[in-house]
Amino acid sequence: MTTVTQPRQRRRVRPADRAANVGLHAALIALSLGAVVPVLIVVMNSFKTTQGIFGSFLAPPDAETFSVQGYLNVFSRGNFLLNYQNSLIVTISTIVLTIVLGTLAAWALVEYRVPIAPALAGFFVIGIMLPIRLGTVPLLKTMTAWGIVDTLGALVLVYTAMQLPLAIALMTTYFRAVPAELKEAARIDGAGEWRTLWITLPIVRVGIAAVASITMLPVWNDLWFPLILAPGKGNQTVTLGVQQFVGQFQSDYPALLAALTLGAVPLVVLFAVFSKQYIAGLSKGYGK
Amino acid sequence: MIRTGTRYRMLALFVAPALVVYVAFAVYPLLSSVGMSFFDSGGGESTFVGFGNYVELFTNPTTSERFWNALVNNVEFFLIHLLVELPIGLLIAALLTSGRLRRSVGVYRTLLFIPATLSVVIVGFLWRLIINPLWGIVEFPLLGTEATALPTISLMSVWQYLGIPMVFLYTALLAIPDDVVEASRIDGAGAWTIFWRIKFPLIAPQFGLITILTYIWTFNGFDIVYALNGSAPGPNYSTDILGTFFYRSFFGSSGQVADLDLGATVASVIFAIILVTTAAYFWVLQRRLKTYEL
């Protein structure tokens, strides 16, 4: 199908085509700037003094207005290192638990086709659409009864339950694509079911990466459950920490902007690295 | 081949851990919330009160006024998302898949999606700083005026989540086989005609999916409003949505006592609103698919 267009592309670019290309790039650059510039303004101003910020909002820091005082204030007054540690523990535990449980379940739903398997798969898939937050009152009651309110573990359990449906839906599509011959060959060679799954895993590693990247964002960025299930100083995640910090230090603009920058940058960087897996996960997970 | 008995055993073994977590921390709390809404646990003892909590919610002047206000605001919140996100998302997806871009596609796609990776807390404060009437880019107090506060917050959220419909439409456009497009090009169709006559009808099902997901997400909304305006979002509750109303009902706030039963009742009402619409969507979808098959 591409062979048809090949000779055309080698020809000199027609002026009309060139104009269209310029227009296209101009439109996309403008839209991209709209997405990125507000973030850059915050990052840039976080390296300025209060006078520098108020004096000229859009000017980059110069010798006079450059300052890292905001960051120093954030680290001396906030609990940022602890917040990062909490967010990392919660996010990584949730990702690992979601991948392990989701992979096992998806494997079984694809592999052991008994009459109840499709119904079970459907029961999980419904969860993609379920507004889990609306169960917060009983969750809070249960967690209180178990004595795990205000622990990171409470967050991990709720987030895993929240992310499992999407993980299972995604892993199911990847397991379906595994050639049956491969699994049969493993079984004929005497591999048990665990061993067969283990042999299949490298083939679905793209799916595992997609699950990891799609689990990361909503968990790291959630405000609702940290606010309700783990609000104590020692258990605050970055998202909640930033929220509280900004509420407390309304007038210290350099520190405020530094806090926002510290909250935003890690995820933007991670996303830039894993954007391909994330986008695959997003479209494949929901698109059914 | 694996024997049927073994299959059942293996299925149970592999699915059980996921099922336990999913039921215990997602399905059960949701259903239990509905159960709780029929009880009064005020005096320590739980007593069955039938629809008593619902009657209280809808007849008590304060709660009923707040509920309807939050519902109307939430509809506005949803409609702004849908009406702004869909056309812009479609435009970006169309530009990205116009066939004129090579390696730059990935760069644009990543840049355009960056806002969606930020936490709502950051998005809220970032925009509040930029539109600060004292030193930001507009002098009008957009967030301090009742008429403009909710549209402003909605647009902040739109700015953030634009990448999601973009990705859905982008991947749908990519999935269109090249030969379909190529055939119409050979027939003499221009880029404009190809887009509206060939590609657009093929990606139309995505609009239904985006609409229903946006509906569920916005009716579950809370974070951006809370981040900007707290749990009693002003001015004068003009930015109160169902999520913040729900939060106040069971967590309490200044001027409102925490009431778990009322919280469960509000949650059940929101759940019903979401469920009815989603069910209607899938019902219509299924009927339409059937007519196409015939």
Automatic annotation (TrEMBL), chain A:
Gene3D superfamilies: MetI-like. Residues 84-274 form the ABC transmembrane type-1 domain. The chain crosses the membrane at residues 21-44, 88-109, 116-134, 154-175, 196-220, 253-274. It is found in: Cell membrane. The keyword Transmembrane helix applies. Belongs to the binding-protein-dependent transport system permease family. This is Carbohydrate ABC transporter permease. It comes from Agromyces soli.
UniProtKB/TrEMBL annotation, chain B:
Its main location: membrane. Residues 71-281 form the ABC transmembrane type-1 domain. Coiled coil: none annotated. Pfam families: BPD_transp_1. Keywords: Cell membrane, Membrane, Transmembrane, Transmembrane helix, Transport. PROSITE patterns: ABC_TM1. It comes from the Bacteria. It is found in: Cell membrane. The keyword Membrane applies. The chain crosses the membrane at residues 12-31, 77-99, 111-138, 158-176, 262-284. It is a multi-pass membrane protein. Belongs to the binding-protein-dependent transport system permease family. This is Sugar ABC transporter permease. It comes from Agromyces soli.
